[in-house]
Amino acid sequence: MTTETLDLNLVRGSFPILASGYIFADNAGGSQCLATAAKRVADYLLNTNVQLGADYSVSVTSTQRVADGVEAARQLFNAKSVDEVSLGSSSTMLAENLARALEADVLDGEEIIVTGEHEANGGPWKKLAARKGITVKVWHATQIASSPNNPYAVSLQLETLLPLLTSKTRLVAFTGCSNILGTITPVKAYTTAIRARAAELGVRKLEVSIDCVAYAPHRRIDVQDWDVDYCFFSVYKVYGPHIGALYTRLASLQSSLQPLTHHFLPVKDKSYKLQPGGPGYELVYGVTAVPDYLRSLSTSSSLEDAWAKIAAHEQTLVAPLLAYLKSKESRGVRIVGEETGGPSRAPTISFIVGGERPIRSKDVVRAFDQKGNIGIRYGHFYAYTLVDTLSPKIDIDDAVVRISLVHYNTAEEVQTIIAILEEVLA
Ligand SMILES: Cc1ncc(COP(=O)(O)O)c(C=O)c1O
């Protein structure tokens, strides 16, 4: 189906700021916004900024625009129905709401499994467990067998998850892609294995929650194919406005979740159940620009094709950067995450500089900041537990240097990044 490569002129022309020449390499923190998304947000505010649901003409238009935004998010999840999609200010807030809504359906003695990845899909479940007095287990990232010499080459592996499951497991919450390690989790394969094990163990009810925030800018989400119950991502990292989107499988919405809304609202089968108050309507309308943009990247207007092109282009960014960092092993550079490119590697690349002449992550980033036309970042990026449990230990406050690229970055930009690193590591 994919016959051509990504049209980088089309891509970069869609983000006016890129014409400035500034190199955005902190995209896992937030991507640049499509001009079309910004225009739609402004258009909503300037022309249709009224409350939804009334019968007068402007309200009819605003209602339709918001419905179009929810439909756009549905497409990005590949959910069956718009009733499975709710929107809110951030993924963190949506996940916290989800945990609150699930609370009554988690029974005494049941267990929850989380990862050490971004706290958004950990904290709400840990807090829920604390409120209910139930057990939380942490599925830690462990050493990748093909990289035995680098203790920081770790990933989430099924072999370490399966023994954590018991007949009491109620929820497994994991990430679709690590925002530090850059590894894309095989969500479908893992979910299938989790469900099979749960069936053997006679689990009462097992649900799976996927954090797709670091995944969504790079690959196609497919909640139906993955067979997951909950999934969320942040549109502001997928080239749109600052808003988050949550998928809840209809069956879970109906049977597992209590409404967070006013008691008199008719919410039984509606994702509105999880929206205590409206999300920013102009931002919801802005979401419509994202699938439109993705389709424009494909000659067949196919989202699958667009994502395949994006993934292929991103590999041309991943490969040279990883190869360069790996070549600096004797200088003390350690990649934190998978050391090689490939289908399971997003262009989110973290590392530390240790060895005999260590350099703090902060100082590596400062050298980039001094150039003035490039943005990268250091820290734990809220994957606190992951970074804190790396062994040998690294300073949690200094943590890792992260260079996070997306499809609008270019091979030339990667060469610029490598040239700066070359100076820093001299
Ligand atoms: C993997 C991951 N999950 C969750 C979040 C939280 O997203 P939000 O800022 O929308 O709450 C982030 C933000 O950086 C993230 O990288």
TrEMBL record:
InterPro entries (alphabetical): Aminotrans_V_dom, PyrdxlP-dep_Trfase, PyrdxlP-dep_Trfase_major, PyrdxlP-dep_Trfase_small
SUPFAM superfamilies: PLP-dependent transferases (SSF53383)
Domain Aminotransferase class V: 23-416
Record-linked Pfam families: Aminotran_5
Signal peptide: none
Domain of life (superkingdom): Eukaryota
Name assigned to this protein: Aminotransferase class V domain-containing protein
Organism of derivation: Phlebiopsis gigantea (strain 11061_1 CR5-6) (White-rot fungus)
